[in-house]
Design a protein that fits this description.
With 338 residues, this protein is α/β, with parallel strands linked by helices. The chain has two domains: 126 residues, NAD(P)-binding Rossmann-like Domain (Rossmann fold, 3-Layer(aba) Sandwich); 162 residues, 2-Layer Sandwich (Dihydrodipicolinate Reductase, domain 2). The chain has ten helices and 14 strands. It has an eight-stranded mixed β-sheet with strand order 8-9-10-7-11-12-13-14, with helices on one face. The two termini are 35 Å apart.
């Protein structure tokens, strides 16, 4: 059974996703067969670059198509995630949607309900969860070598205020929605439970968009995560997990690392496959692993991934809402019901 992908939008992350999948020698029986964008000329250029056979004039046309695609990869701007994912789910297509899955918790819950109603697979594209280094990190924690895990630290800071979509409220701009999702999911990967207390300090720009924050998550049993997301400065973007017996570190870039420092000090490297074409983002060859997970789940008839479940997306959305609220960042859709 070939899993047929349709690519929704033709931007930078979509380029890297397609490049990662098409370059992977062991991608299995899956193929990227169609693309759509708001501007047909962009979709045509994208299709030519990536040898995609079918170009749709509109997203609606792709969603309504029969027998062309099985799953849609949505790489559009944040405000478009909910309406586009809803469109494809309601037309019987499975969906892998870039993070953040939606702009708030209400949209996220609504989208999950729509996926369940239509019996279609839905996953937030938190590609970090499928990094080989993350799998090795979890294995060592499970072995007991760290003892009881008490502390998590993670930084994601890059100087990117020139990226317009990150600074404009009407484009879903927000450091926590763009960078913070990575540090939040890292803490949740380790601690699993919802935090009992969230404390945030940060700064906003003239448009009322957060551009940097430090987040303290407190969990039961005295466990704590200290996380920073910052669009104003380049930081040492590593993640550290500390237990009563030792410490693990995933090196920069922690959000998709290729280096893990084990609790005994040994360093393990994880090589990614070579890409055939130019990529925009560091280590984006690793995007293939989420596509492998989606294909596996669809073949097995699953409606969500056990590694990036609906529950996980709901917790992330709730945390993102909390961070924005503490910093006074509101979107117009926050007052709407879905």
């Amino acid at each position: 059974m070939t899993i047929r992908w349709g690519i929704v939008s033709a931007g930078k992350i979509a380029n890297d996703f397609v490049n990662a999948v098409n370059s992977y020698p062991e991608k299995g029986d899956q193929a990227i067969v169609a693309v759509a964008a708001r501007d047909r000329s962009r979709a045509e250029a994208f299709a030519k670059t990536h040898s995609i056979p079918k170009v749709f004039d509109t997203y609606q046309a792709m969603a309504e198509s029969e027998g062309v695609i099985d799953v849609a990869y949505i790489g559009a701007l944040h405000p478009d995630h909910y309406p586009l994912a809803k469109l494809f789910l309601e037309h019987g297509k499975h969906v892998l949607c870039e993070k953040p899955l939606c702009l708030n918790l209400k949209q996220t819950q609504s989208l999950i309900n729509i996926a369940k109603k239509n019996k279609r697979f839905l996953m937030e594209a938190v590609w970090s969860r499928f990094a080989p280094a993350y799998l090795a990190l979890e294995k060592e924690i499970a072995s007991g070598k760290l003892g009881e895990v008490k502390r998590v630290e993670a930084n994601f800071g890059i100087s990117c205020l020139d990226v317009i979509r990150l600074t404009k409220k009407d484009m879903g701009g927000s450091a926590v929605m763009d960078l913070g999702v990575y540090v939040l999911q890292f803490a949740q990967l380790i601690f699993k439970d919802e935090p009992t207390k969230v404390t945030v300090v940060g700064e906003t720009n003239a448009e009322g968009v957060d551009v940097g924050e430090t987040i303290i998550l407190e969990y039961s049993g005295g466990r704590r995560a200290v996380l920073t997301a910052d669009a104003t400065v380049k930081m040492w973007n590593k993640g550290t997990v500390t237990g009563t017996k030792g410490r693990l570190t995933v090196e920069d870039p922690f959000h998709f690392p290729t280096t893990l420092i084990h609790s005994d000090g040994t360093v393990e490297e994880f090589k990614l496959h070579d890409l055939k074409l130019f990529s925009n983002f560091i280590n984006s060859a690793g995007l293939v692993y989420e596509s492998l997970e989606v294909a596996r789940c669809i073949r097995e008839g699953l409606l969500e991934s056990p590694r990036m479940s609906h529950r996980e997306s709901l917790i992330l959305a709730k945390l993102e809402d909390t961070v924005r609220k503490q910093l006074g960042v509101r979107y117009d859709i926050d007052d709407q019901e879905f």
